[in-house]
Amino acid sequence: MDWKKLFDDEILHRGLEYYEQDGKCAFKNDKNKTASSNESCAAFSIKELVDNTDSEDIRAFLINALTDDPMLLQQFKLKMRCGISSDDLKIYKQAIDRICTCHADKYGYISYYDSRGFYNELSEFLQKTITEIIDNKEYINALQLIRYVFIALGNIAIDDSNGTLGALACDCITLLQTILERCDPEVKKILYEECKSLVVSDDTLDYLQDYIEELLFSDFSEEEFLQDKLVFSAAQVEAFLHPEEDCINEYAAKTWAKYHLQVMRQLNFSQKDIDEYCKKYIDLSDIRKYYVDECIRMKRYKEAIQLLEEGKLVDTGYRGLILAYSGKLKEIYAKTGQREKYKDELWRIVLEYDPGDIDTYKELKTYYTADEWEEKREIIFKQKDIHRIDHLYAYDGLYDRLLKLALEAQGIYYILEYEDLIKDLAPEKILKRYEEVVRKKAAYTSDRGVYQEIADLLKRMKRYPGGKDMVQTLIAEFRSAYRRRPAMMQELNRV
Q1: Which of 159, 218, 253, 299 could disulfide-link 240, Cβ–Cβ 3.0 to 4.6 Å?
Q2: Helix 139-154 vs helix 206-218: crossing angle, to nearest 10
């Protein structure tokens, strides 16, 4: 065994470098002669150091280093392809545990600030150590460690605002895919079963299970796996719809139902079988949308329309779903040339499903003449709680109504938004509204940000007739009343 080369490689890997200190360093050269300790303090290369060191000294040093550092021993064994024992696995798992705990506070929580260091260290372990285990064809052991990491991630208390857990899960999936690309069929079967167990494990976080599910259904395309996935996905759907604890999870159920349909496609099930499965779970919104798309693809428009109208009734209260169904209805009516029904759907959207939607409003207007639209739009304006009715007023040039809306609002948002459109309609009233808002803001002690806002509003007021005089009056009043607010006084100087 080439001990010298091994030692040299390891020292290089650990990034060490050797220097003389105090002129007292010596080493043996290749002729077993001691070099002078009085040489200059130049840095010697690692290769020179090892080349000029006796092999027995290297052996002793290596034994001590490997004894003192368990992870260095594991790296050495990986280099020597010695295989991985159960005790070795325990050491690797302890290393994972250490990474998870050393970045946590005394309560076991990893803060946002510490999460970066946690990610860097665990990601390095995955990408270097486990990758090397895979390179040594220790697939089963690598799989066990990846599983251990996945479960560890599910038990960590962490501020995951920056997506640390998801990023680490992606690293794990990449390693699993590497194993899939290299392993033999027997290992692939074991990996498949491990993925299934992780998917149903209570120790794995729900959203981390999504990564495993995606791997499970994007790979393993052999017949035996497809047949098993068909049974597995069917059982999962039922488990989430009829749980023992009587807590239905429709989101999970529809996810697994879509996976089931995907496998049915891969196994070349008949369209009749697919239709029957969709009808069985039609009350799951995603399955309803899937089946509607199937009907549209096969030009079964009447059936698709019926499914969508039923969906509106079943999913009443879910605005996003109702809009999705309505959008599909519009698509069908456009394909089939049903102009009146298309227009009726626009009316439903603008009056019921999404009141005040500007795009629908614009499209609906194209169906009427100018005179007709003046009458029709009043139907829309009579509705309560129209979202951003100001957009509709502005689009149709109804500036008088926009002015009324701006003056009646509590703040001055609409004035600021549409000032160029309404300022000439009632400049005195707008100026008065400015004054009211500025006085109200100034009456309460606040921070510099509010004082800056007051100064900006005062600048705007100066653009109106009589505004300059009013601003001078307000500034004089504020300087007297609020003279103990130096930040306000500084901001008023900007005006």
Answers
A1: 253
A2: 150
Bridge-based pairing state of the strands 157-158 and 109-110? parallel
Which comes out higher in pLDDT, residue 197 or 56? 197
Tell whether pTM > 0.70: yes
If you search the block for the tokens 């008088």, which residue do you land on?
A: 400
- Give the model's pLDDT for residue 83: 75
Measured distance CA(199)–CA(217) in Å, rounded: 12
Which of 391, 311, 314, 316 is closest to 350 using CA atoms? 391
Please give the domain boundaries of the chain with CATH numbers for all domains: 3-68 (no CATH), 83-356 (1.25.40), 399-494 (no CATH)
Residues 292, 328: contact at Cβ < 8 Å? yes
Give whole-number Cα distances, 243 to 235, 238, 247, 248, 414, in Å: 11, 8, 6, 6, 51
Please state, in angstroms and rounded to a whole number, the distance separating the CA atoms of residues 415 and 403.
Answer: 8
Do 151 and 200 meet the contact criterion of CB atoms below 8 Å apart? no
Is the Cβ–Cβ distance between 125 and 96 less than 8 Å?
yes
Contact 427, 465 (CB under 8 A): yes
pLDDT, position 44? 64
**Count of alpha carbons within 13 angstroms of residue 417, beta-carbon side:** 16
Beta bridge partners of 18: 44
Nearest partner of 145 among 118, 172, 115, judged by Cα: 172
Q: Which of 42-51, 214-223, 278-287, 349-358 has the lowest mean pLDDT?
A: 42-51
Residue 218 to residue 222: CA distance in whole angstroms: 11
